[in-house]
Amino acid sequence: MAVKIEEKDGVMIYRRPSRKGPRDLWRAWQVLRRRYLLRIRLMTRRLGAGYVFCRPQGGWNDTLVQVSLCLDYALRHRRRLIIDTSRSGLLDVLARYFRPASTFRGIAFSVPEGFADHSRSMSCLPASLTGRGVRYESEYREETNYVEALSRQRLTFDMNRHHVEQLLVHEQCGGGGDSRRFFDWAVPTKEVRTEIEKSLHKLPLAYFAVHIRHTDRKTKYKEFLAAVQPLVAGKIYWFAQTALRF
After folding, report:
1. Residue 217 is part of which domain span?
2. Is 179 helix (H, G, I), strand (E, B) or coil?
């Protein structure tokens, strides 16, 4: 049993459970209700003229963490958020997979046409981008994360304070648990939902799922796969991998 969540006209609806039901379910409802009301309050605030330009780096979780950080800031400071995932591990436009979970128009999951040229006339943070806007090159430095290639300035801004600059640029990597907050504001597109449903329908009630990471953290995946092969032989299982070589 769980709190029923559904989508209607682009808005996420949370169905209230009975108070006579399980206590954990009632608590979950209270948390969801507070988050929902906060989102409605933030969505209905009048937007200012400023922008947050989020250009996340790293893998899928890193991408969502960085987007979530920028989204939180944009909402608190009434700025429009533009997300450019072309340099991230996604290597694609986020709008192909997700859309805003409401009628809120302050979030763009792709870079609007003409914005790159328009950004050159804006005041910027980091200041070295003024006159160039989002047309710049970046490079990764282990001690500082991503920096602008010419000035070596770190490509971010202080998210704990208000800024007067029109354009705030954030291009960083880094993971954690904040990625879950992204799904408070985004839902998969119809095409993605259809593909997920097709995949789920092919699975039995019981199956094996294996996900092996072999990028910054190395694993002895060949030995592991050899060890589990007798357990999954003849059975359906999902296998996901990150940068494996056989």
Report:
1. 203-242
2. helix
